[in-house]
Amino acid sequence: MTSASRAAKQATATPRNPKAPLAPRLSPVPNIRSKQGAVDWYWDEMSLRVTYNEVQKKTASGEMPSFRIGGAVHYSSQDLYDYVMRQRRSAAENVGGAA
After folding, report:
1. Using one digit for the tens of pLDDT, what is the confidence trace for 61-85?
2. Contact 84/39 with Cβ under 8 angstroms?
3. What is the DSSP string of 77-93?
4. Which residue has the higher pLDDT, 63 or 5?
5. Rounded to whole angstroms, how far apart are CA atoms 43 and 81?
């Protein structure tokens, strides 16, 4: 098998775990209802173990953007993704701040 045909085969191969997407589906509209829905989205789409209390605290403080629609809290998947990406630290911070 040539390297070109091997690369083509790998590109068309199905992932080992078809339930795990390569990238989360993002939408700017409020498509996730409730704080528990946000927790479930983090677990299902990003494999992050975020707790209900974390979502509740970050929403109340305004750190995690949300929408209030008909008395219920809604989130957009894009806002949830952006929130996680803002938490990223540099390599120097990860090893104690020494550069």
Report:
1. 999 999 999 999 999 999 999 999 9
2. no
3. HHHHHHHHHHT---HHH
4. 63
5. 12
